[in-house]
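Box 4.2: Ligand-aware structure prediction
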Amino acid sequence: MATLKDRIDGLRKTFEESALEAADAKALEELRTAFLGRKRGHVTLLFEDLKSVPAEEKGGAGQLINEFKEFVQGQLRTIGEKLEPGVRYGAGSIRTKSKFAAAGTVVPGTVVHPDLTLPGRKRYVGMRHPLTLFEEEIERIFLGMGFTIEDGPEIETDYYNFESLNFPPHHPARDKWDTLFIKGDLLLRTHTSPVQVRVMERSKPPIRIICPGRVFRRETPDPTHLPMFMQVEGLVIDEGVTFANLKGTLEYFIKALFGEKIKVRFRPSFFPFTEPSAEVDIECLVCSGKDPSCRVCAGTGWKEILGSGMVDPQVLKNVNIDPEKYSGWAFGLGIDRTAMFAFGIPEMRYFYENDLRFLRQFGAK
Ligand code: DAH
């Protein structure tokens, strides 16, 4: 033990003498290597020799060496800070000099020293997808009218997608919904209407809900068709609900979305789950009906945005709601198509290509 102590005292003296002479960073680095160098540094060698010290003396010897090591590290740091502020010498091989340190302000106590005069780093904040923005706008309007938002599965059974909605098996009306079947009874929902049934099964009237979501059809992609797109379904069930209620609410909604002046028209239509049924058109915002060759409205001046109708009594019976007591209406709107129209986008595919040049036009840059 005495010999180890002598050895350390000797090394300490050598260190102190050399430290006095270390006049620049290079000399200081040499000193660091001589003492703390990972292969042949004096301190490292002391630790090496510790291996052959008898077990009972190991603890004390180790402590002496550690104290010496900390002394050396502390000294290196103090001298280094005087020689070159912002540069750290000492602990092991940590010798960090920020490439900015020479350029400007040094922040004491940090290892990497940023130059505070440099401009900050820009953090890119994500933005909402235009379809999400549009969907949220629709939700906002309906929430304001006291509706709530519901959800349903994208993989559906034949029962919910068709049968409960009054499409008997093999009914020709099924052909209108080009269905992607999965296996057996399972399919990808072709519309959000099955959520109506699921909601009526799990809740009691009065019901006032909307349900936005993805739907799937066997479509060949073109500017206005994709095999996957978005719809929002709406359903109102209560006592004494009439077609006037349907008309008033949908007109209010469309005006809230497109502005007071928009022209709206209701056209008779057919859906197995509503009777009577209506499709709703809005005036063509691209040509206002003035261009017979308009590509958006095909010269008709109108653009269909949703299907709607009074819920068929058979659908109510299917979910054990008494059609003598309750009535209601429903609608289904194509979110992508309506958003294309609202934003003036000629291609539905743009929504799904994730091209930032397109997406950035709708959110924070
Ligand atoms: N599900 C229909 C479709 O995809 C749209 C629709 C029409 C929904 C009438 C409804 C409705 O709720 O009442 O074409």
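In the box above, the bound molecule is 3,4-dihydroxyphenylalanine. The chain has a mean pLDDT of 87.
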